[in-house]
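Please check this:
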Amino acid sequence: MSGVMKKNLIILFLFFGYSCCNAQYDVDDVRIQGDSTLMGMKIESSFFSDGAFLIETTGARFEYVKGELKLYQGLDNNNRRFLSTIIFENEPNFIKVESLDDHIIFWSKDLNIGIYGDSTVIISPKKSQDLKCKGNFKPDYEGRYKGELLLIDDKGGMEIYPQRYEAGYKIKTIELGKVEWVADYELNAKERVMIAAFPGKKFNWEDSFNTRIVVTHGAMGLGEGNIYGEMPPNSTIENWAQNFDVLVLFYKGLYERPEKDIKNLRSHGPYIIENIPEFRRLITTAHNVDLKVVTYVGFFEYYRKFHNAEPFLEQIKKLKQQYGIDGVYIDGLSFDHNQNLDSNKILNWEIVRRIRSLFGSEGVIILHGTHGGLAVETAPNIDAYCSATLNGEGVPFQTVEDDYIKYNVRKYGISNTIGLWRPDGKHPQTITYKEIIDTILKMNCREATYAHVPLDKAPVGKYKWGNGISSAYSYYLRRLKHLEDLYHSGKVR
């Protein structure tokens, strides 16, 4: 046998030996599809020795030894902040099974864990056991619903989200309001927990100035000579491009009507374009003037009705392939689908990761979610994959300093995506639109605007789309320009 042949056989043996060795370790429960590197988050470095490890992500550090996983947070590798110790039963001896820029996955006989580049760890026990979390910082905001915790201060923070839809986990102890807070759980087999540090990436100032969003929809077919699915004329699209970067099309006047009845339009789809020539014209015109086109999809309603994510994702894939859309506006995730707030946040995280992988780093994902002001509405590791997030619909507030606004609407320093606020809940009339806009910009949030046409009544003659520039939005643009000038002069960071 020649030397070259021996060398090739050794290489094949090592390859297949490694593959077969890893094949005995089932870690599908902590392997989540998607790619954090598309949003500037990744596994930066890692070190392993005799079951212990140290992993640095873009926004965190994970140190494991003898049953204790220490979690540090911060975008500066040399100045991470110690947040919490996560204590596992039986001091599991982890074996590394998979290592990529997006994630590193470990197997042990008692539980599996996956650590991701967006500073998320997924924990999946194989038998009933205790999971203990001990804090090392006192949050300014301590959001809680059942066993879910959202802990935030001005440096960032962390989330602890046991999966409510996976039945049976028990809260043994939760004690907040102090530096050494405690969160102890009793988990059943396969009852996963998602824990994440944040922010997982830096705030992109330039994107925040250049993601100006206008929302509209197609014509409803009402009145003489108007066609359902008619899109705004080229002149209107070209006019929008002078002030906006992203055009969002809602489902009404866009997708097929069940039995051709506009009263039966539903946000859960199916997402089949009604007027294909008009839609293609809109996309061509928009792209010719550098305006990105984003279409509505409603995962909240879809999942509540069908309880299956794959067909939903397949419809988005077809819209992209057939028409070249630049992204999607996601109306809600999997909360509330059993009418008792059974949120599946790991599924939500994977959905957004997979949609980001479909559209790439330049695509647009706008996530709308409100949840009635629930204290743990925000999941920063999910938001981090979005171009922008829209919160606040229907949530009442008494002042612009309410906790919901500061810690759920705001994304700066939390997920570091672009936060949008829809303040249409009940609030005192003394709070003016200027105060709301000033608050938005103070939190480094941004504003969207609308250019709708009538939904339920016939227009006078042909449909006419507005320019989207209200007096409030004009004020916002002036204030935004002032902030942009301050940033470019180095006075704001």
